[in-house]
Amino acid sequence: MKTQPQISACFYIMNGVEVLDFAGPMEVFALAGFKVFTVALTKERVLSQGILQVMPDYAITDVPSADVLAVFGGNPASFRNDTLIEWIKKYQQDTDYVFSVCSGAFALGHAGLLDGQTATTFHSRIEEMRTAFPKVTVLSGVRFVDNGRIITTAGISAGIDGALHLVSRLKGEAAARAVAEEMEYDRWIPNNGLLTTKQTLL
Amino acid sequence: MKTQPQISACFYIMNGVEVLDFAGPMEVFALAGFKVFTVALTKERVLSQGILQVMPDYAITDVPSADVLAVFGGNPASFRNDTLIEWIKKYQQDTDYVFSVCSGAFALGHAGLLDGQTATTFHSRIEEMRTAFPKVTVLSGVRFVDNGRIITTAGISAGIDGALHLVSRLKGEAAARAVAEEMEYDRWIPNNGLLTTKQTLL
Q1: Integer distance in angstroms from the first to the last C-alpha of chain A?
Q2: Of B122, B155, B184, which is closest to A156 when you measure between CB atoms?
Q3: B18 vs A27: CB contact, 8 Å cut-off?
Q4: Which of A7, A16, A161, A165 has a 20 to 30 Å separation from A148 between CA atoms?
Q5: What residue segments make up the domains of chain B, in order of their start?
Q6: Residue A202's pLDDT band (cuts 50, 70, 90)
Q7: Which CATH class is domain B8-201?
Q8: B189 lies within 8 A of chain A by CB
């Protein structure tokens, strides 16, 4: 982690982004005291799930650095964009963590960040991801996978669990529990559904 | 329910609205095939949780009718606004359901909709709500309360459960289960945490 006292998280959003994919982790990180901001390809309005009109804080051309880069699902076809993938490759070099929810894992796959790693994604896209990224071990039936620097979660609401896990790593389990209680995510059990690379290798 | 085939839900949002309060039910209703739109006092940008910049679809002066009116927490002080409360009183007359998450229950309380009813709210505002609305039976330790037409939920993530409950009522439990599975809200148990008015009276 960098020396700055407040942890920062950059949320990449795009048209078609699934609303709970980003809103769950946004809620968790906000309650944990992180500074969260949004970025899109341009500063034009992003339409989430065909419903929610979001104005991104930054375009990829002017976004400040962050400790965490987070990407989300809902429109993985949009990740087949060289400008975006080059930006992800470059931007993540200055982050401590890379975090994906749902089919957001495809963005990390296209950027080559998951090669040789273990990952997960939205339940209905497991096979598609295995085919698209043969160098990645793609797991089904897990809620999130922690490779150390790169954390990928399963679909939609699993992003909440992955975000709580990252808070637990960065600020301790007591802090993560306090966030879960504040948001009345009563049924959260630390490490439930987690698979670390170490566990995978055992 | 009205004769229109698609159920519609009007989400009232305001500056300071808690992001997961509205995004959880938005995800649930969207996956259930509802038409969801947002409304604010004016069409000016709404800043959710100090982070997310949202452009509302409508102002209260031009919003179309809906089957469900939903209100959310995060800034209950903003509900002390006569224009808003008069709009809620009038708008809800043409809805089949009124739904609140977290401290959104205070908006319904100010509008008098909870008088003689049983309700819940964010865990840290239970006592404040009892004091503010002595004609309302305010319950702690429940995830949501269903009065038939008016459903109030506890804090933040409890909105997901309340929304799944409403989907279950409107489209059947199988449809609600399918939504929970799609969003990987694995630990959802139908009716878990529910208190109906009938149960209260027993």
Answers
A1: 28
A2: B184
A3: yes
A4: A16
A5: 8-201
A6: very low
A7: alpha beta
A8: no
Q: Which of A18, A23, A184 sits opposite B123 (nearest CB)?
A: A184
Q: Where are the alpha helices (DSSP H) in A92-171?
A: 105-110, 126-132, 158-171
Please state the ipTM of this predicted complex.
0.92
Q: Are strands A52-55 and B52-55 parallel, antiparallel or unpaired?
A: antiparallel
| Range B97-114 average pLDDT | 98
How far apart, in whole angstroms, are the C-alpha atoms of residue B14 and residue B24? 16
What is the nearest CA distance from B47 to chain A, expressed in angstroms?
10
pLDDT tens for B181-198 read 999 987 655 555 555 554
Q: Give the three-class secondary structure for A177.
A: helix
CB-CB contact of A19 with B30 (8 Å): yes
Q: Do B30 and A37 touch (CB under 8 A)?
A: no
pLDDT in tens, B164-179: 999 999 999 999 999 9
A160 touches chain B (CB under 8 A): yes
Separation of alpha carbons B123 and B103, rounded Å: 9
pLDDT, residue A201, reads: 34
C-alpha distances out from residue A23 to A28, A89, A97, B129, Å = 9, 24, 18, 27
Beta bridge partners of B141: none
Residues in Cβ contact with A86 at an 8 Å cutoff, skipping those fewer than 6 apart: none
Closest chain B C-alpha to A19 CA, distance in angstroms: 6
Smallest Cβ–Cβ distance between B26 and the set A19, A37, A57 belongs to A19
CB-based contact (8 Å) between B201 and chain A?
Answer: no
B96 vs B197, higher pLDDT = B96
Helix axes B173-182, B158-171, angle to 10 degrees: 140
Give chain A positions within 8 Å (CB) of B160.
Answer: 157
User: What does the buried/exposed string (b/e) look like for A79-95 if buried means 16 or more CB atoms within 10 Å of the residue's CB?
Assistant: beeeebbebbeebbeeb
**Quick check: A99 pLDDT over 60?**
yes
User: In the A/B pair of chains, how many CB contacts fall below 8 A?
Assistant: 107
Q: For chain B, give the longest Cα–Cα distance.
A: 46
Q: Mutate one of A13, A22, A53 to test the B interface: name it (highest B CB count within 10 A).
A: A53
A25 and B21 Cβ atoms separated by less than 8 Å: no
